[in-house]
Amino acid sequence: MSTKPLWESTRDLHHACEAHKVGGAMSTGKPPKIWYKAWLMALYQIHSAVDPSMPKCLDRTMRIFKDLQNMEDQPEVKLLKSAAAYASSLKGEKSIAGAAYVLTGAHLMGGEIMRRRLEGFPTLHLEWDDRKEALAVLQSYRTRDDITQEARDCFQALLNVMDEIESLYTL
What we know:
This protein has one domain (6-168): Heme oxygenase-like (Heme Oxygenase, Chain A, Up-down Bundle), CATH 1.20.910.10. By secondary structure, the chain is mostly helical. α2 (11-19) packs parallel to α9 (148-168), α4 runs antiparallel to α5 and α4 runs parallel beside α6. The chain has 9 helices and no strands.
């Protein structure tokens, strides 16, 4: 059990993701298209493991798949080993909840800003049928004090994905 709120216990890794070269490029709204497509592929890999165990309102898998289809004019991207390793590690309710907290928070909160910035990029995975319902589910994860390590693991996995994207698709 953590003595700090979940957001505070993960703040260092959250900031590391934002400060990463790939994360920073995403936040500008003008990432290299190959990085964005590789990022979508990683999200697809991870969400394919997470979403079947989450409430339906949070499911992003098909939306990410459609975003990837909308980038078919871009070069092929590889399945990312770091995303596959993380996805295969997601065993049990706590690891899924930690991932759900990080991913849902990113897609709902930062995603709302990113959707506007990413002009010309497919962003269906950042749109919500019922944002209010998704926020309520996110709040249920935010208040948990037993998934700190699992949320940190997700942020670390996202950093690993960014490292892999940067190394595979150097500009």
